[in-house]
Specification:
CATH topology of the largest domain in chain B: Uridine Diphospho-n-acetylenolpyruvylglucosamine Reductase, domain 3
Number of helices of chain B: 11
Shape of chain B: globular
Radius of gyration of chain B: 19 Å
Distance between the termini of chain A: 53 Å
Strand content of chain B: 25-35%
Strand content of chain A: 15-25%
Strand order of the largest sheet of chain B: 4-5-10-6-7
CATH class of the largest domain in chain A: Alpha Beta
CATH class of the largest domain in chain B: Alpha Beta
Number of domains of chain B: 3
CATH architecture of the largest domain in chain B: 2-Layer Sandwich
Helix content of chain B: 25-40%
Largest sheet of chain A: 5 strands, mixed
Oligomer: heterodimer
Order of helices and strands of chain B: EHEHEEEHHHHHHEEEEEEEEEHHH
Number of domains of chain A: 2
Number of strands of chain A: 5
Largest interface: A-B, 31 and 30 residues
Chain lengths: 157, 284
């Protein structure tokens, strides 16, 4: 049984057909071609699929797709505006905050969810907000520094 | 039924009717943080998913000296509530340490209890708060004390067709505390956790509650250890004695997170820390 699903993706209305057990990650990656959220563990452990749902960070792999009916989903694809990178993307680039890049979309979305709610978080708050995102390359320091740079206006020019 | 059906119930009555209709084939979907991994990885094939996120069961309120929390209230909302932090610190601390940010925004209090993990983070604070659950089904409504709710790992007294509507507890007079020990600080299940509630009057303990998580088939109350505190002045020695009595009630197992031996040893320290915190003593 497939059900029609409609929601807002990065500000634009989208539609898809979904099974009851399809997750938001399945629909984004396999039906809508939105591939920044990564399938790491499929159990909510790794954070690579983190997206923002109605302003709050969620695991796309733990979210049954049909429950996002009518809601607003933000992914990394929505951050780049008119070909210009979001300050978080620029800071990740400047601070060498990615090696293999697999965790990066989830890291950026967790960081964005934090900055949307609190524009000047402390280092501890940043670490806490990113504590559910694993980076197997071990770029944690660079990632936290990148987010701090955006939060406290210490971006390199 | 080869492929699952999906229903987004819009009222409690509709949800109960669907639950009655699909009985054992139905699974209740709230935040999905415990349910969906079982579907994704562990081969669960539900006949019908009944989504309860649109029933208006997302609230924290105070009524007649009780705090009442809707079953579909996300843990993030509980963690962020000033009223919960002020009046039931143990519950606030447990909600803050559960999972991680992107899990707390989805995972709910009702789901945390109904999933009946021995390590459920919200179970021990709610046990020491003497919480009651309001259960509803098409046929009846009933109240049950949380201490009578758990039957074993993943097992509760919930009947097919029945769901948790809300969780409530009397606003405590004394202080509560929660201490969790995991393998890491973040995104970890408890190796052992403890919640306590102490009501102290003129230096004498009037009422005590101690609960342990992750050291028995269900979250566990420790009446014997609680009894040691009754009418006593709380001292470091008494806390140590009480912590060891509490662990005597436990029956931990060896698993991927820790050995039974370690859980017994570390558990005593976790209980002592929680008791000291609630009693306002420096032990750490």
């Amino acid at each position: 049984m497939r059900y029609p699903l409609a929601f807002y993706l990065n500000g634009l209305p989208v539609e898809a057909m979904a099974k009851a057990t399809d997750t938001l990650l399945d629909v984004l990656r396999e039906k809508l071609g939105v591939v920044s959220p990564k399938r790491g563990c499929d159990t909510g452990e790794c954070g690579a699929c983190t997206v923002i749902l109605n302003g709050e960070p969620v695991r796309a792999c733990l979210t049954i797709a049909l429950t996002v009916e009518g809601k607003k989903v933000e992914t990394l694809e929505g951050l780049t505006q008119d070909g210009k990178m979001h300050p978080l993307q620029e800071a990740f680039h400047e601070h060498y905050a990615a090696q293999c890049g697999f965790c990066t979309p989830g890291m950026v979305m967790s960081a964005k969810a934090l900055l949307d709610q609190k524009s000047k978080p402390s280092r501890e708050e940043i670490v806490e907000a990113l504590s559910g995102n694993l980076c197997r390359c071990g770029c944690y320091n660079e990632i936290v520094e990148a987010v701090e740079a955006v939060a406290h206006g210490r971006r390199k020019e | 039924m080869s492929e699952a059906l999906y229903f987004a119930a819009s009222t409690l009555n509709e949800a109960m009717k669907l639950l009655g209709q699909y009985g054992k084939k139905a699974v209740i979907l709230a935040g999905g943080t415990d349910l969906v991994p079982r579907i994704n990885i562990y081969g669960l094939k539900p006949g019908a998913l009944i989504y309860v996120g649109k029933l208006g069961l997302d609230y924290i309120k105070e009524e007649k000296g009780r705090m009442v929390i809707g079953a579909a209230t996300p843990m993030a909302k509980i963690a962020g509530s000033k009223a919960v932090a002020k009046k039931a610190a143990a519950l606030s601390e447990a909600a803050l340490q559960a999972g991680t940010a992107a899990v707390r925004t989805a995972g709910t209090i009702g789901g945390n209890l109904a999933n009946a993990s021995p390590a459920a983070d919200l179970a021990t604070p709610l046990l020491v708060l003497d919480a009651d659950l309001s259960l509803v089904s098409q046929k009846k409504k009933r109240m049950i004390a949380l201490k009578d709710f758990f039957k074993g790992p993943g097992q509760t007294v919930l009947q097919p067709g029945e769901m948790i509507k809300e969780v409530s507890f009397p606003i405590p007079k004394g202080r509560t505390a929660f201490v969790k020990l995991g393998r890491r600080k973040a995104l970890t299940l408890s190796v052992v956790n403890a919640a306590v509630r102490l009501e102290v009057n003129r230096k004498k303990c009037q009422e005590a509650r101690i609960a342990l998580g992750s050291v028995a088939p269900t979250p566990l109350r420790c009446p014997k250890a609680e009894g040691l505190l009754k009418d006593q002045e709380i001292s470091k020695d008494l806390i140590a004695q009480c912590a060891s009595e509490a662990m005597a009630a436990s029956s931990p197992i060896d698993d991927q997170r820790a050995s039974a031996w370690y859980r017994k040893k570390a558990g005593a320290a976790v209980v002592a820390k929680a008791l000291a915190r609630a009693a306002g003593l420096e032990m750490e």
